[in-house]
Specification:
Strand order of the largest sheet: 3-2-1-4-5-10-11
Structural class: alpha/beta
Distance between the termini: 59 Å
Number of helices: 11
Number of strands: 11
Bound molecules: 6-O-phosphono-beta-D-fructofuranose
Radius of gyration: 22 Å
Oligomer: single chain
Length: 353
């Protein structure tokens, strides 16, 4: 077993509620195991510029309930250069950082693989409100973000009901429609628009007209931001074609803040503990993930390939190192994800009259 003196923990990419709970769990678990913890600020940038602090248990007190990330975050372009990477490795050596837990999305995991390849074992924890990391059922921040969406949309519904209006609401999620799909169901949306499922605009408008004719007064339409240049124009078309006054709202970053839900605190705590134990057990280049409510792992590189396969962004030679059987397994996994999405979308459709 590798002997660890000190590990680093960082948060990178878009912040997500629950990241603090994960940092807390990583810190406390490591200290409990007799290993020191260096909190690295502003993601990988902090590794390049040596912006870090040795954490005690007390440094992570009173943060389990706070949104954002006390370690701050960054989408660090310099880390993608060989020079930046070398500076980061140098910082690790100089500060006796023998391993790292990196909390974030797919960009964060790419960095984790690069560090591992250069001799700093790294474990990734999925933290992004988008829940768009294909290999895990769940990523930290998703639940809180969705609860914020439904709180906001419930308010919009109140005023829509009073004025017999429609509100088209665009929600974050990058290219993925998970936030839109699940919140759409939870707010009783009349229509949900995502990249994953072809959208029949004429059918949706017809449905809204029929609902209006049957006495419905308020209409909510949820659009994922991954459908570019759509939401605002759709609001105008709904108004023109149905005669229902239609407003547009973009919730944007408001959805990324706020106190983490129980789900996010709990998952972050479990994943944080698991990540440290894996690292101390000599493991590296793994994503801690959730599958069927269990915390388990997947190799980061394999996870990335599944992710690219699902998103249709595989590059030439990406699959060269995988056997036919492994590729079939990856395809089956992606199909399962697509089926899950389609099934939920269908539920939304059935109950949206
Ligand atoms: O990945 C999280 C996320 O909030 C996405 O939903 C969104 O597309 C993106 O980050 C926004 O990024 P930024 O904070 O750089 O504007």
């Amino acid at each position: 077993m590798a002997k660890f003196r000190r590990i680093g923990v960082l948060t990178s990419g878009g912040d997500a509620p629950g990241m603090n709970a994960a940092v807390r769990a990583v810190t406390r678990t490591a200290i409990q195991c007799g290993v020191e913890v260096m909190g690295i600020y502003e993601g990988y940038k902090g590794l390049i510029y040596e912006n870090m602090k040795l954490f005690s248990n007390r440094d992570v007190s009173n943060i389990i309930n706070i949104g954002g990330t006390l370690l701050y975050s960054d989408r660090c372009l310099e880390f993608k250069t060989e020079e930046g990477m070398q500076k980061a490795i140098e910082t690790c050596r100089k500060n006796q950082i023998d391993g790292i837990v990196a909390i974030g999305g797919d960009g964060t995991f790419r960095g984790a693989t690069d560090l591992t390849a250069r001799g700093i074992p790294t474990i990734g924890i999925p933290g992004t409100i988008d829940n768009d990391i294909t290999s895990t059922d769940y990523s930290i921040g998703f639940d809180t973000a969705m609860n914020t969406v439904i709180e906001m949309v419930d308010r919009l519904r109140d005023t829509c009901e009073s004025h017999a209006r429609c509100n088209v609401v665009e929600v974050m999620g990058r290219n993925a429609g998970y936030i839109a799909l699940e919140t759409g169901i939870a707010v009783g949306a009349s229509a949900i628009v995502t990249r994953e499922i072809p959208f029949d605009e004429a059918k949706a408008i017809q449905k809204i007209k029929e609902s209006k004719a049957s006495g419905k007064r308020n209409f909510i339409v949820i659009v994922a931001e991954g459908v570019p240049d759509f939401a605002e124009g759709f609001a105008k078309r709904i108004q023109e074609e149905t005669g229902i006054e239609t407003k547009f709202a973009r919730l944007a970053h408001v959805v990324r803040g706020g106190n983490p839900s129980l789900r996010d605190r709990l998952t972050a705590s479990r994943m944080g503990e698991a990540a440290v134990k894996l690292l101390l057990d000599g493991k590296s280049n793994l994503i801690v993930r959730e599958r069927d409510s269990k915390i388990c792992t997947i190799d980061i590189t394999l996870g990335q390939m599944i992710d690219r396969m699902y998103k249709g962004t595989l590059k030439d030679h990406d699959l060269d190192n995988y056997s036919e059987a492994e590729i079939e397994e990856m395809k089956a996994f992606c199909k399962m994800r697509a089926d899950e999405f389609a099934e939920l979308y269908n539920t939304a459709d059935v109950i949206s009259h």
